Amino acid sequence: MVMLEDLLVVLDGQVPGERIVGWIRRLCRTSGARVRLLVVREVEGTVWAGTRPVAFASQLEDAARLEGLAYLDGVAGRLEGSGIQVSSDVRFGPSIATVLDVARDSRAQLVALAASGDAGRRDALGRLARQLLHRAPIAVLVARARDQRAA
Amino acid sequence: MRVKTLMRTRFSTVSDDTPLNEARLALAREQTDTIPVVRAGALIGLLRACDIDALGPSTVPSLATHDWAWSSSSLTVRAAAIADALTLGPEASVHDAIRLLVSQDLDAVPVVESASIVGMVTTRDLLGVLLDRLDSAHRTGLDRVLVVVDFDEGTAAAVAAGVALARQHRARLTLLHVLQARWRSLLWPGRPREMLDWARREERVGRSRDLVALVPRESGLEVGTLIATGGPGAAIVAEASRLAADLLVVGSRPHRPFLGRDLTNELVERAPCPVLVVRPGSALGTEESVGRAGA
User: What CATH number does the domain containing A116 carry?
Assistant: First the structure.
């Protein structure tokens, strides 16, 4: 029987997006799965004041990485309490390509996220969820960040 | 639960001689309302966004014009920080943390060990604990898995994943197929109503038989089959709600925007539970013990 062993969970750093965490805990209850938490940030650009660089891209990325890891620490603790093995990752780049790269590298069987769009809006899914549904070569689990019961 | 199991161990700090403008930027960058103030590595206070605002220009526009420009002031963190901030030890309980945050009207409290700050506990972290407690009041695992079967190229993968998850969770598995009766009426215009009813009954019986054949009897699962009629999206969402499904499983299908609204997107947007979209050939979509799905 195919068991869920490696899952990739994409978070956006917002509380509504954490709706997926409760479902992941339920899904992994009996499987002893490994979960990788991922936050994808846009690539930072160097900040210039005239011709003088005020902050280099690498510095901004370091700060954003620390911030992302601090956020994921809190989420990881909630899953680890349920006996799930968790790792955290912060990447920079275009969101869909980065998520697919991490999924491939980590040999994930499933990528999960909470769709960030608002019900009733034209783009009720959010761009990342929509693109993953059509482009991911693996299974995609999508909860809604709003207007859906919690796990 | 102890504070050490939920505190954040990565956090920013400011020193007491940091200009207030920079401290305000640090708070915004960290998306927090409270940041610890340190001197030579030791905690000496807390800086809150509301304390910075209190030192800024008046919030009354007519009075604010007479205030010194806030950004040009030479104030440092020392002027706004709360000295002698209360702290917690790593072994303190969550109950202690909540009591301290409420009594002191704080959004975060530092965790200190041997005079060094080792973590921060925020209201957000505590909300996470509360969310977990509320979640754990529900039954863990999955109780009912609903698989959408449309007998196209994604069906085998959806059924395989549904069977695997139902086994893993000892969940009830329901296979759902939606008959689109309206289309048949359009295809057979002018036929007697009895003939249409007969055709629908025959189709319903045939599809029920096909559904039963998808999961072998020896699977040991509690399997139910269901035939619904109507628009696929609305019918599937209605059945998922009625059955209180924990998970809706569908096979991925080619994106055909010219055929109208994408069913997968519609289900994700409207389903009462998360939707698992399984691609044929993916690890989760292959199951040797599952019968032929493309009947």
Answer: 3.40.50.620
